[in-house]
Amino acid sequence: MKILSPSQIKIADKYTIENEPVSSLDLMERAATKCFEWFIEKHNSEETVAVFCGVGNNGGDGLALSRMLIDAGWKVRTYVVEFSNNYSIDFTTNYKRLEVLSPIKHVIDNNTIPEVVETIVVDAIFGVGLSKSPRGFTRDLINEINNSVAKIVSIDMPSGLYGDTVTTDKEAIVKADFTITLQSVKLSLLLPEYSEFSGEFVVLNIGLHPDFIKNEEVHHHYTEKKDILKIYKKRKKFSHKGTYGHSLLVGGSSGKVGAILLATKAAVKSGSGLVTSLIPKCGYQIMQTAVPEAMVLIEGENNLQSLYYNINPSAIGIGPGLGMVVGTTELLKRFFEDNNAPLVIDADALNLISTHRELLTLLPEGSILTPHPKEFERLVGKWNGDFEKLKLATEFAINYQIILILKGANTAIFIPDGNIYFNSTGNSSLATGGSGDVLTGIITSLIAQGYSNVEASILGVYIHGLTSEIAIEEGIESMESFSAINIIDYLGKAFNSLKD
After folding, report:
1. pTM for the complete prediction?
2. Please, are residues 431 and 465 in contact by the beta-carbon 8 Å criterion?
3. N or C: which end of the chain has fewer CB within 10 A?
4. Terminal CA-to-CA distance of the chain, rounded, Å?
5. Which of 190, 216, 212 is nearest to 201 (CA)?
6. Mind listing the pLDDT tens digit for each residue in 214-230?
7. Domains in the chain, start-ordered, CATH in brackets?
């Protein structure tokens, strides 16, 4: 999915109206109908609803939704928040449609801010077009809504939150439990800094003209199943283990053998034809017992003393459990200078690079780095807010011509041409030790099987996140009990879901 900016959404509305053709009022009705259908599916009609509407088109959506709920027999109180007397045309039409069904109250100052006693609040005050933080009584109303015990549902965007720029006044943002965002996810909804305001979000397709969206240039993308199906390659009947490449996983040290074991097992379970681990002797018996499908090369006793291998790998994952003893940096330097295979770099290999930045210049173009936020901070320094973090990560990927996978909720994949792909799968159960090692194994395996480095990154991150969703949905694991080994256990179901 392309992530459209607020200005692009506005142009897409206009294009749809002119080229479908459809009236702006009917387009608003379409959007409100989608919201209504979602709303009644997720909520009980015995609940009471307060709908707060601004005077623009987001408010018009709220008025239309209120009318539909009342028609369906719901108990609804509707408020118009008069932060301006400049009503939009479609807002005015929907106001007139609603007032014949139910009284509409107006919030014009602090004295008219109501006490919220309903069980659900619908926030349709500002939406995505906001250009400055709410002030005065509108800001106070937002605080009243936030302090209520009601479940809060925002239409398009939590009021007070900007779509694709820094929001400075965090005391003037609705803290939604759910955000119903229209047509395209908005960039701010994907950033950890603003997660307390957006809650869970759902993207509803309101039918903006596909030709406009197809031809519009964007740099931000949200990876959904339909995007993954364009990448995923089904296995062919007449194939053999040589068809699916040879993965080499490099790492492990005394006390950290588990990390390279997880990466190796993940490479096996995600389809690599052959898998070899290059590890120190202290991990030999563990690896041969736990992953009999993998071959093992030994270099050193408790730490790797050499990175020599006598095979021709299709892809290499390096770093899990590698350790940072004296001499490892020099090993890594020689390895980068001599290696020609595609690289996935994680964990201790990243930490060594962060203390020896000159190693970055030795990486082949398209190498994949997979830091979590703290590891990325060691690479680039501190940042002020998530938008600056995005800027630093984009510049880093472009400058070094590498793929940067910044792990976390909605893991972001930065590629060398400046595009960013945000992942749609996963949950907080993945916040567990070894999760990143498994991801390294998955991506290495996918590259070995013939996926490009970009494809392997996008597909690998998606599948990795999907395992946690399936496990939690099935109820076999909880958010707390889910572990890295469970990611591997659920890889089969995750891949099978792509064939449904």
Report:
1. 0.96
2. no
3. C
4. 20
5. 190
6. 999 999 999 999 999 99
7. 6-218 (3.40.50.10260), 241-497 (3.40.1190.20)
